[in-house]
UniProtKB/TrEMBL annotation:
NCBIfam families reported for this sequence: PRK09285.1, purB
Keywords noted in UniProt: Lyase, Purine biosynthesis
Known role: Catalyzes two reactions in de novo purine nucleotide biosynthesis. Catalyzes the breakdown of 5-aminoimidazole- (N-succinylocarboxamide) ribotide (SAICAR or 2-[5-amino-1-(5-phospho-beta-D-ribosyl)imidazole-4-carboxamido]succinate) to 5-aminoimidazole-4-carboxamide ribotide (AICAR or 5-amino-1-(5-phospho-beta-D-ribosyl)imidazole-4-carboxamide) and fumarate, and of adenylosuccinate (ADS or N(6)-(1,2-dicarboxyethyl)-AMP) to adenosine monophosphate (AMP) and fumarate.
Organism the protein comes from: Brachybacterium muris UCD-AY4
Official protein name in the record: Adenylosuccinate lyase
Length: 474
């Protein structure tokens, strides 16, 4: 009988983010793992105790010394492997993760000058007071310290690619068909610009929090200490944590802000997905060559000539998984039955996988982009084989002359359609057609000098717009 992998120690990872792709997703462990959740809970609980005593919210209790504040703040700072194991041990007894956090803190106050104040730990708190603030801190940290910096690096990669190739002409393909030429740089700049806009949106997103009791009414606070302005205490504490105070909630903070953040992250992911599929297509067209050394290892297991675009395919797939998870989070978290249900508890534990697959995709995109060489000759050959794309230029000049009163410029679209529709036109045929149009000399010479390589309009100049877009996103 085959061995059961479930019995192997250390445990074998179930998901690829904790196994095969651990290195790429690892930066999120400090923010979105179960251990990170418990560390954030320790931060909230200890800071709440400090805040209450510092604000004099409970009459008759003394303020803390600097050493006592340092002692409390050291509790989450020192939370490591031993602390994780100890908390798990306590939770096995309490069968309640937040209550286990309370007991964990009280153990560290035992035998210190804070032991007489131990009951202040978790006072006037429901578990969701601690959890909503913890998740807000976790998501904020993950987005601002890990995910956004990674996205900005992709944008910089694209911006560099755009600037380096601003003047490299390339055949466009609208609907997959040859169309008005552009430059490779301008097309890469489009993606950098789109992503920079999403960065600015995400930078402006709010992370909300509340600490107002079992049903959001401050009932326990008001009956116990009626003389304290508990709304002000709550607001100042939430803002002290670097979050935005939500004054109106049920037992839970409504999670609408989470839905907003995840929708923005998912949208950025879909733009990245578009980038991955476009680069994949440019590779298939020969516009980019891949360096095998940059991709790593074997290209194809049976066809040694191939260098497969695996980084972009990996990114594409992981962005789809990430987008699906983020969409599910956004849809689920905005609903809570009446004053509370527990669907959000297990749902929020999947924030890590949602952002993890996105981070993995970003890593693969960057590695893929770093392994590309531009093949300007392939693009030039493609342009040379599609002189019919100049039909737009000729038609536009004729139309302009016609409305300005020049005779013989009638039916420009129809005349170009007859020449170019469904057939290839070479340079000689296009020039012969232009010569027979009876154009004024200036326009005739301008069109005769035009080639698919030079018919790129302002494309190179448009890349300059990245200067402001990048500046605003950083």
């Amino acid at each position: 009988m085959a061995h059961s992998f479930a019995d192997i120690t250390p445990p074998i990872a179930l998901t690829p983010l904790d196994g095969r792709y651990r290195a790429q997703a690892a930066p999120l462990v400090d923010h979105l793992s179960e251990a990170a959740l418990n560390r954030s809970r320790l931060v909230v609980e200890t800071e709440w105790m400090i805040h209450l005593l510092d604000a004099g919210a409970i009459p008759g209790l003394r303020t803390l010394t600097e050493d006592e504040i340092a002692l409390l703040r050291a509790i989450p700072e020192d939370f490591g492997a031993e602390g994780i194991a100890e908390h798990a041990e306590i939770e096995r007894e309490t069968v309640h993760d937040v209550k286990a956090i309370e007991y964990y803190i009280k153990r560290r106050l035992a035998g210190t000058s804070l032991e007489p104040l131990a009951e202040v730990v978790h006072i006037f708190c429901t578990s969701e007071d601690v959890n909503n603030l913890s998740y807000a801190l976790m998501v904020k940290g993950a987005i601002e310290r890990v995910w956004l910096p990674a996205l900005r690096e992709v944008i910089e990669d694209l911006a560099s690619l755009a600037r380096e190739n601003a003047e490299v002409p390339m055949l466009s393909r609208t609907h997959g068909q040859p169309a008005t030429p552009t430059t490779l740089g301008k097309e890469m700049a489009v993606f950098a610009h789109r992503l920079a806009r999403q960065v600015r949106r995400i930078e402006a997103d709010e992370y909300l929090g509340k600490i107002n009791g079992a049903t959001g009414t401050y009932a326990a606070h008001a009956i116990s200490v009626p003389g304290t302005d508990w709304q002000q205490v709550s607001r100042s504490f939430v803002e002290h944590l670097g979050l935005t105070w939500n004054p109106l909630t049920t037992q839970i903070e409504s999670h609408d802000w989470q839905a907003e953040v995840y929708a923005d992250v998912a949208r950025a992911g879909r733009i990245l997905h578009n980038l991955a599929t476009d680069i994949w297509t440019y590779i298939s067209l020969g516009y980019f060559r891949q360096r095998l050394s940059a991709q790593g290892g074997t290209g194809s297991s049976t066809m040694p000539h191939k260098v497969n675009p695996i980084r972009f395919e990996n990114a594409e797939a992981n962005l789809e998984i990430s987008g699906a998870l983020l969409d599910s989070l956004s849809q689920t978290l905005v609903t809570s039955r009446l004053q509370r249900d527990l669907t959000d508890s297990t749902t929020q534990r999947n924030i890590g996988p949602a952002l993890g697959h996105s981070l993995l995709a970003i890593s693969n995109l960057r590695r893929g982009l770093a392994g590309l060489d531009v093949d300007a000759e392939a693009m030039a050959a493609d342009l040379e084989g599609n002189w019919e794309v100049l039909g737009e230029a000729v038609q536009s000049v004729m139309r302009t002359l016609g409305v300005q009163g020049t005779g013989g410029m009638d039916s420009p679209y129809e005349r170009l359609k007859e020449l170019t529709r469904g057939q290839r036109v070479d340079g000689a045929a296009m020039r012969e057609f232009i010569e027979g149009l009876g154009l004024p000399e200036a326009e005739r010479e301008r069109l005769l000098a035009l080639t698919p390589h030079s018919y790129v309009g302002y494309a190179a100049r448009l890349v300059d717009h990245l200067g402001s877009a990048q500046g605003e996103s950083s």
